[in-house]
Structures are given as structure tokens and as C-alpha cells.
Write a structure and sequence with these properties.
TldD/PmbA_N; Metalloprtase-TldD/E_N; PmbA protein; six-stranded mixed β-sheet; alpha+beta; PmbA; 22% helix; 20 strands; PmbA/TldD fold; 455 residues; six-stranded antiparallel β-sheet
């Protein structure tokens, strides 16, 4: 499909590669991960073409495991026997230079039925033409300008699509394909009103192209930028913060690394030793779910052939568990949660699928009505500065001032600082307006007693 190698050729190459290991008596297991993807994107600035990019990549990786659990990995971008022979040679060589690991093993739970997650759009797999992509970007630009005359520049109107297929084969007998697609759209605008100027934007991505509401994305980019246009800082004080779903999803994204079992074992998470303890307010329920229909983080099986599944991480604020691949699950004596992530050139590690906070029952306006004085937060700035080990953060915020349930003056130039784990205990309300931004989702959150400082 779309110029990628035929499946019969891929399978033949993979089986041939495994067969070449028979002469290496110390190698007790091996698996092959093949990935191929095609992507296309277009980007315009004020209607002028900025980028037209088309790409295709094919890669096959071999992992070998010896009798003491040493792992070696090598990969190539060709399916020719000469290249595959070198992959076998280097994978075996690399295994000799690694340390023994008694917890390394292949997935031996075969025969588990897989369920379709509806993550493949045949329309996207046909390819993106320049004409279709440019028309979408033109519509984005026009809608942004028509939404508010204060839009002075559409700095980016972006549309892209991608198709990926994965094949996994192991010496334990696992042999399976999965395929997935993605469509993404972004709009960035500059707005001005007198001497005031603000840049902002909005984007969305979906598994199916027709699930993207292009015009709404353009409108959201303008509306979110307009909300903070001319924003001023408030006096330094403790405030009730109402995070909209997008800001809340950014907040949730900070939590991911803390729940990965490999980070817990390496001392990179403060959650080590806190299983079964209350670590957040009782209104916080955190889920990781690879089975969501059309979810951006959904998959049929993970990087070790374990079926994707749903895992409850926080229930009523209590730490229920962590996310595992096979190795770290064996360390803790628990089953894998199907959260192995890996590339063709990397050893298995752990990652989230669709990570989200379960919604509550009240809509956003109900949450706002309960706030006499607070800040409605639409943007969290500086997320990259978060320290997952200590939980400390210092973030900029943008949004609007809340007075008696109504949104008034725009707010910007303020910062919040503290510890993420402390903040989790101050979440007092969870809205019903859950939205996903990529593979992370959240409803609006109300957080009390947060010190916000003007800068």
C-alpha cells in the first residue's frame, strides 16, 4: 500500500532472519519488529506555501536473547538477505556486550484473541494529494480570518496525514500485523487590538480524516487567542484555578512518566513504594486504555505482542498500580499491562497508551458558577521544566479572570509553582467535558488554593 513492501515479502524476510539464528546455540529467543510508514504534510503562512513534505520509511529490527538474558539489537532499512545477514551478526555481537538480566523473556501467552480498535482509515491510506491538502489549508486560513477581523496573520495552516503498518514475529510463535492512520490539523494566528498583540493556536489529530472538524479548529485557534489578547497579570495571591480541558490534558501529560514501571525501578518517580496509598484527592480517577475505539494511543498489541488493555492507575485518588512491559512486570510479579513501547532500533521500554482522567457529572458552567474569584486557565507554559523525580514545577499560565462565575478580563504574565503531587490533593471538582488532545485526555479541573504570582 502506498509503495510499501508487500506483506508476503516482509514475512518471508522476517522468517528467513529468525532461521539464521539456528547456528547460534547460546541464543535462546528472538523477535522481529518491522515498521513501515508513509506521511504527507502541507503548511501555509498567510496563504503562501511554506512546506510540502512527503516521506516514507521502512525498518526491520532484530532482538536476540541469550540463555542469561543478555539482549542484543540491530536493524536495517532493507529487506535484502545481505542486509539481514548483517543484522543477525550485529544483534548477536551486541548481546555479548550487555549485562545478564533474569527478567528478560518473550511473550509466551499465545492464542489471545485480538480486537479491532478501528484505528485504520482506508481513505488516508490512499495518500494525500497536493490539491486536497492545499484546499484544506486555504479553508483554515479563510475561516480564521473571518472569525475575527483582529486576526492580522495566519502564521500556520497545517494539514498532514500518515499511515503506518507494524509486523511482529517472535521465536515463541507470535506472528501478527497491525496498521494505523493519523490525520492532523493545526492553526496558529497573530491577533492585534490597538497596541496589544497575541499569538496563539489550536490543533487536533484523529485516526480518521473525516473526524477532523477543520473549520472548528480554525475557530478554536482564534477564540483561544482572543481570550488572552491584552492579558494582564493579577496580584500575587492564592486562587481557585479552573483548568479547561486542554490545560488539564497538559497537566495530565506531566503524570505519565511517574506511572511507568521502568522509571519507578530506576528511581525516577516519587511513586515508588506508594502502592495502595492516597496520592491525590478522591475525585481523581486516572486511566490508561489502549482499547479505546479510534483512540490516538490505541493499539491491538504492544511492542512485545501483548494485547492492549485498560489499566486503572488512580481510583478515588488511591494508587492502584503502574504500567508494565514484560520485563518489569516479571520484576514485580505481576502481569504485563500491555504497555511496551519500542522502535526497531531500541530495546523494550514502557509507555502510556490513552492516558486520561475520568469525567465527573457537572458541565463547565456549573464549575465556574461555584467560583467567586479565580482564574480560568487555557494555557500552561513551560511544561518541559517539570521534574518527574521531585514533582516540582514552575509554569506560566494564561486565561481569564473569573468573577462570580463569569469570565472577565484576560490574564497573562502569571506563574504557578509548587509540587505536582501536592496539587493533586487540591483538585476539588472534575467536569464532564472530557476531550482528548492526541493520546492524553481530561475534563475541566477545579484546583483550590494555588498561589499564582504576577511577573
Amino acid at each position: 500500500m502506498m509503495g510499501l513492501p508487500e506483506r508476503d515479502l516482509v514475512e518471508s524476510a522476517a522468517f528467513w532472519t529468525l532461521d539464521q539464528l539456528k547456528g547460534h546455540k547460546y541464543i535462546t529467543g528472538a523477535d522481529i519488529l518491522y515498521k513501515a510508514d508513509v506521511s504527507s504534510l502541507l503548511s501555509f503562512i498567510d496563504g503562501n506555501l511554506e512546506e510540502d513534505s512527503r516521506g516514507k520509511a521502512v525498518s526491520l529490527g532484530l532482538r536476540v536473547i541469550d540463555e542469561e538474558g543478555r539482549q542484543g539489537i540491530a536493524y536495517c532499512n532493507l529487506l535484502a538477505k545481505e542486509a539481514l545477514s548483517k543484522v543477525v551478526k550485529w544483534a548477536v555481537h551486541n548481546s555479548k556486550n550487555n549485562d545478564p538480566n533474569p527478567y528478560v523473556e518473550l511473550n509466551r501467552n499465545q492464542g489471545v484473541p485480538f480486537e479491532d480498535r478501528d484505528i485504520f482509515d482506508p481513505f488516508i491510506a490512499e495518500g494525500l494529494s497536493f490539491d486536497r491538502g492545499s484546499k484544506i489549508c486555504a479553508c483554515l486560513t479563510e475561516e480564521a480570518r473571518n472569525t475575527d477581523k483582529r486576526v492580522k496573520s495566519v502564521r500556520e495552516a497545517f494539514y498532514g496525514e500518515g499511515y503506518e503498518e507494524t509486523f511482529y514475529l517472535s521465536s515463541e510463535g507470535f506472528c501478527e500485523w497491525q496498521k494505523e492512520t493519523v490525520a492532523r490539523c493545526d492553526v496558529v494566528v497573530i491577533m492585534s487590538d490597538g497596541d496589544e498583540m497575541e499569538m496563539g493556536g489550536f490543533g487536533d489529530e484523529r485516526r480518521y480524516a473525516l473526524d477532523l472538524d477543520y473549520l472548528n479548529i480554525a475557530r478554536q485557534a482564534v477564540c483561544r487567542t482572543r481570550m488572552t489578547l491584552g492579558g494582564k497579570h493579577l496580584k500575587t495571591a492564592k486562587y481557585v484555578l479552573v483548568l479547561d480541558s486542554m490545560a488539564s490534558a497538559s497537566f495530565v501529560s506531566l503524570l505519565e512518566d511517574c506511572f511507568l514501571a521502568d522509571n519507578v525501578h530506576k528511581g525516577r518517580s516519587l511513586l515508588s513504594g506508594k502502592l495502595g496509598r492516597q496520592i491525590a484527592s478522591n475525585v481523581v480517577n486516572l486511566i490508561d486504555d489502549a482499547t479505546l475505539n479510534r483512540g490516538m494511543g490505541s493499539y491491538i498489541f504492544d511492542g512485545e505482542g501483548t494485547p492492549g488493555q485498560r489499566t486503572t492507575l488512580l481510583s478515588g485518588g488511591v494508587l492502584n498500580g503502574f504500567l508494565y512491559n514484560i520485563e518489569h512486570a516479571k520484576m514485580d510479579g505481576v502481569p504485563s499491562t500491555g504497555n511496551c513501547v519500542r522502535g526497531t532500533a531500541s530495546l523494550p521500554s514502557v509507555g502510556a497508551s490513552n492516558l486520561f482522567i475520568l469525567p465527573g457529572t457537572q458541565d463547565l458552567q456549573c464549575l465556574l458558577n461555584k467560583v467567586d474569584s479565580g482564574i480560568y486557565v487555557t494555557d500552561l507554559l513551560g511544561l518541559h521544566t517539570f521534574d518527574p523525580v521531585s514533582g516540582d514545577f514552575s509554569l506560566g499560565i494564561k486565561g481569564a479572570y473569573i468573577r462570580k462565575g463569569a469570565l472577565e478580563n484576560p490574564v497573562s504574565g502569571m506563574t504557578i509553582a509548587g509540587n505536582l503531587y501536592d496539587v493533586l490533593f487540591h483538585v476539588i471538582e472534575v467536569g464532564n467535558d472530557i476531550k482528548f488532545y492526541g493520546s492524553v485526555g481530561s475534563p475541566s479541573l477545579v484546583i483550590e488554593d494555588v498561589t499564582a504570582a504576577g511577573v
